[in-house]
Amino acid sequence: MIILKGVAKTYSSSYMGNMCALSDINLTFNDSEFVAITGRSGSGKTTLMNLIGGLDRPTLGEVIIDNTLLSSLTEVQSAKFRNEHIGFVFQAFYLEPKFSVLQNVALPLLIKGVAKKDREDCAKNILRTLGLEKMLLKKVSELSGGEMQRVAIARALVTNPKIILADEPTGNLDTENGKLVMDLLKSCVSSDRIVILVTHNEADVRYCNRIIKLCDGKVVEDERQ
Fold it and tell me: Which pTM was predicted?
């Protein structure tokens, strides 16, 4: 479960002074939800995702994941928490082009300190589950955009996280590959996993069972379907 209580985020700029990205956000995310966070550019979508993912800290309020207050963690503790509990999928993929698919997927387990054979076995299992076993030894530079995003999802899943955060995952993909990625993300939802999608793509929103809309840093809609 993810709980946000009175969350606000303000950025300071020497040119524009204080800018409020989020204001008084109160939300609860439950296991098994597939949530879309939508809104126009500048509405606060990515800021909200970064706070949930522990990549940034709120100016005010609390972000709590499974009874852990994220702002109470040190930077080292926060990094460890993210690696163990949260999987990230980004529009730009962020795969290492010189690594093989297997090495990219196993990377979070390397960071976690898992032995080579164990992490490679785990990565192979995830890739096999997602139907990507034929590209194990391929370099990322040899893959299409759709293949790279599916590899990025495999990497996000390899630590068996309770939360998947996807920021515009179909933004660099054509319609067909976008559908494949969204089908894959939907299949990641389970009784003990939450998937949160940041998107402005209406086609992606239709896959979700809850839609949260932001405007000027505030929640203006929160609907389940």
Answer: 0.89
